[in-house]
Amino acid sequence: MLKASNNLIKDLKKQKRENGSLLFLDNIKIIKDAISNGIKPKIILVENEKLNLWGDICDVFLVDRKTIEQLSDCKTPQGVLCVAEYIQDVDLELPKTNFLVMDNLQDPGNVGTLIRTATACGFKHIFLIDSVNPTNSKLIRSSVGTIFQSKIISVSKSKFIDYATKNKLKLLKADMSGENIFKCNFNDIIGVVVGNEGQGVSKEISEICCKTVSIPMEKGVESLNAAISGAIIMYQIYSKSLK
Fold first, then answer.
1. Does a structural domain hold residue 192?
2. How do residues 145-170 score in pLDDT, each as one tens digit?
3. 116 shares a domain with 25
4. Is residue 94 domain-resident?
5. Residues 181-185: contacts with CB under 8 Å, at least 24 apart
6. Structure pTM?
7. 68 contacts: CB under 8 Å, gap ≥ 6
8. Which residue, 224, 239, 242, is CA-closest to 113?
9. Chain mean position to CA 82
C-alpha cells in the first residue's frame, strides 16, 4: 500500500474544488456499485489497511482520518474515499422504456431520489435539462448508487426540445392542473417530466408535452415535493405495466 504525499493531497483538494467531472465517493456500497457498473477509479484513499477492499484495481493510498474528512462531503465518512472520472453520456439514442425528464431541478437530494425511483420503476433513460451536475456528492448519496445503473444524459433545454420534437417523444407533464394520474392509461413509451422545485415545468418544455397529469389531494395542500410527485407518477405508470 502506498503512502500519500502532501502534494497529492493538495492536488486532490484543488481537483475537488475545480474539476466538475470527478467523483469523490465516500461510501463503501456506492463505491462498489460504481465500480461494478463500469466506473474506473483513479485512486482510492483509506485510513487503514483493512478498508482496502479493492486489491490492486488502482493505486491505493494510506492517509489519516483528517484527510478523508477534508475530501469527503459526509459528516461521518467511512474511512475510505474513491476518486474516479465520470464520463457524461452524450448518446441521444431513442429510449426503449419509459424515461424521466428533469427540467431545471436544482436540489441534489430531489434529483438523486428521482434517479433512484426511476431506476426502481424501470425508467432506463434520465434526462437532466439544465439541472444539477450528476457528480454532485449529495445527489449520488441520495440515489444510493443507482445513478451508475441508469443512462444519465445532461442536456441543454434547446437541444432536448430539438431531440424530442424530431423523434416525436411522448412527454407527460406533472402539474396540479392536469388529469388525475390514477385515471390514465398508457400504451406507449412515455417520458415523465418533473419541473423546477419552485417554478414547475418551463413554458418551452410544456409546449412539447402531449398530456398533463396531477396527483389528487385534499384541499389546502398546494403541491407535493418534486421528488415525491415524480415518484408517485412513475410508480403509477410502472404498476400499469405489471398487469
1. yes
2. 899 998 999 999 999 999 999 999 99
3. no
4. no
5. 181/213, 181/214, 181/215, 181/232, 181/233, 181/236, 182/216, 182/236, 184/211, 184/213, 184/236, 185/240
6. 0.90
7. 26, 45, 47, 77, 79, 80, 81
8. 224
9. 18
- Domains held by the chain: number: 2
CATH of the domain at 68: 3.30.1330.30
pLDDT at 91 over 80: no
- pLDDT of 99 over the 90 cut: yes
Cell 456499485, located at residue: 33
* Cα 12 from Cα 155, distance rounded (Å): 28
Which band of pLDDT confidence, cut at 50, 70 and 90, is reported for residue 55? confident
Residues 103, 79 share a domain: no
Does a structural domain hold residue 176? yes
Judge if 63 and 136 occupy the same domain: no
Residue type, 77: P
What pLDDT does 219 receive? 84
Residue 222 has pLDDT above 80, yes or no: no
Same-domain check for residues 105 and 218 = yes
Helix axes 226-241, 108-120, angle to 10 degrees: 10
- The parent domain of residue 168 ranges over 99-241
